[in-house]
Write a structure and sequence with these properties.
Elements (H helix, E strand, L loop, with lengths): L6 E2 L1 H11 L10 H7 L3 E2 L5 H9 L5 H9 L3 E5 L5 E5 H10 L1 H12 L8 H14 L4 H9 L7 H11 L2 E3 L14 E3 H5 L9 H12 L4 H8 L5 H7 L3 E6 L4 E5 L4 H9 L6
Parallel strand pairs: 1-7
Antiparallel strand pairs: 2-4, 3-4, 5-6, 7-8
């Protein structure tokens, strides 16, 4: 006989999210571990991850993050929703491949009318060669590609490369106390032989729930930009625990070694005070 999933109040959900986000109390974990737990951090503003990590890590210093960026263990690139995120280098390529369709959708919506009858594969390969020779701004990249495709707006050409080639923004941008334009090269050229983690959509969902759950399917889709995840969620049900919010929406949370802690945070908000 199936049991009705427990209902979580808004406050309980708030406490559970704060716990999973490491925002109830600072943790004693390495910078890279926290970045990977969060499945990357939004970084349109190059300085914002520094404040996010200071909020979460006991004794955090800006140079702790600057060091892992300079050592190429963490990079800034377009990931979920085609926005700039700070992610670990070993996670970056796997994440990027999973959200490729989202990137392409953004390109089509923003620049599709400019790319009619253009061989985008040729544009991508020409752009790759340029940025691997010397890191470039998007303005510089577009201007150079425009010499080969003069009938296409330079911004559209640069955007096509950004979508079809995994690009990383290189320092000094993103380094604490430094400034610089956003210049780009490929992930492969920047981090060389460092190993990549292989990702599946199932991995992405489970990693998201570890950092953001309990959450609805819609929450996952809004965060990632991906759609039609219901079928995959159905396959994952044996690995998930279910709740409802006070509006009747189904909430998902992954099982795991920390399950009891976060269940306590959710059901007994005072536990995390």
């Amino acid at each position: 006989m199936s049991r009705t999933p427990p209902t979580l109040s808004n406050r309980a959900l708030n406490r559970a999210l704060l716990a999973r986000q490491m925002l109830l109390t600072r943790v004693n974990l390495p910078v890279l571990d926290v970045i990977e737990h969060l499945v990357g951090m939004q970084a349109q503003d190059p300085q914002s991850p520094y404040f996010g990590l200071w909020t979460r890590i006991a004794g955090f210093r800006p140079e702790d993050l600057s060091r892992v960026i300079l050592e190429k263990q963490a990079i800034r690139l377009a990931l979920m929703r085609s926005t700039i995120h700070l992610a670990s280098s070993r996670d970056s390529m796997g994440l990027r491949s999973l959200v490729q369709t989202v990137q392409e959708s953004v390109l089509k919506h923003s620049f599709g009318k400019y790319m009619t009858d253009v061989d985008t594969h040729a544009v991508a390969e020409a752009g790759r060669a340029l940025v691997e020779t010397k890191p470039l701004t998007f303005s510089e990249l577009g201007e150079r590609l425009n010499k080969q495709w003069p009938q296409v707006e330079s911004a559209a050409l640069a955007a096509a490369v950004r979508v079809l080639v995994p690009l990383v923004q290189v320092p000094p941008r993103g380094i604490w106390g430094k400034s610089g334009q956003a210049v780009h090269t490929t992930i492969e050229a920047w981090i060389g032989t460092l190993p990549f983690t292989q990702w599946t959509i199932e991995d992405l969902i489970m990693r998201y729930l570890a950092a953001f759950g309990p959450a609805t399917i819609q929450d996952i889709q809004v965060w990632s930009g991906l759609t039609r995840l219901n079928e995959i969620i159905e396959q994952l049900r044996p690995k998930l625990i279910f709740f409802h919010d006070d509006r009747g929406n189904e909430l998902l949370r992954r099982t795991g070694s920390s399950s009891r802690l976060f269940l306590l945070m959710a059901l007994y908000p005072e536990y995390g005070r």
